[in-house]
Amino acid sequence: MKRIEKGAIGIALISLLMLGGCATRQAIPEAASNGELKPPSPGKARIYVYRPPEFVGGGLFYDIHDGAQNDKVLGTIVSASVVSAEVDPGVHDIWAKTEARVDQNLTVKAGEIQCIRAGAGMGIMIGRPTLQRVDLPTCRRDIKEIVEYQKNRDKKKEEDLGFGFAKKK
């Protein structure tokens, strides 16, 4: 009996690792579509939450909420995605939850851009979200990489149409 339980656990872990890279593609919001960060409208602030491409935990997705707006869902984060929200200046409790909730409190001023890097950590049953504040230069670089990653992925898919035969130039 013990051998069967260990085997089942092993198969489940291998399956999770293999399916980790099977997350769906999510469009980059217009505010970051060319890899540049769009500034907020006058009197507003902008928050970017992004998640670099990841294989392990890549299948994990979760909603990003703003506690300052009655827990409004700002967007869903998957591997290689970006969520952008224009908000009123002030304190914002940005949070996400799978089996555990994580929070990141931000104080934003009018005209300011704040960034949070999202990710996936280990959980008991499923992965847990991670949220980490990052500086603006890091955020710009990472979002440009996400945009390029998606463009390259789309180009590869386009080339592979026709049963894996690449188009000739």
- Number of DSSP-assigned strands: 8
Show unreliable segments: 7-23
- Strand line-up across the major sheet: 4-1-7-8
Helix content: 25-40%
Structural class: alpha+beta
Supply the number of helical segments: 2
Q: How large a portion of the residues is in β-strands, by DSSP E? A: 25-35%
Q: Describe the global form.
A: globular
Mean pLDDT: 82
In short:
This protein has helices at about 1-20, 135-160, and strands spanning about 45-50, 60-65, 70-75, 80-85, 90-95, 100-110, 115-120, 130-135. By secondary structure, the protein is of the alpha+beta class.
Write the layout of secondary structure elements.
Elements: H1 2-19, E1 45-51, E2 62-66, E3 72-77, E4 81-87, E5 90-97, E6 101-108, E7 113-121, E8 128-134, H2 136-160
Parallel strand pairs: 1-7
Antiparallel strand pairs: 1-4, 2-3, 2-5, 5-6, 7-8
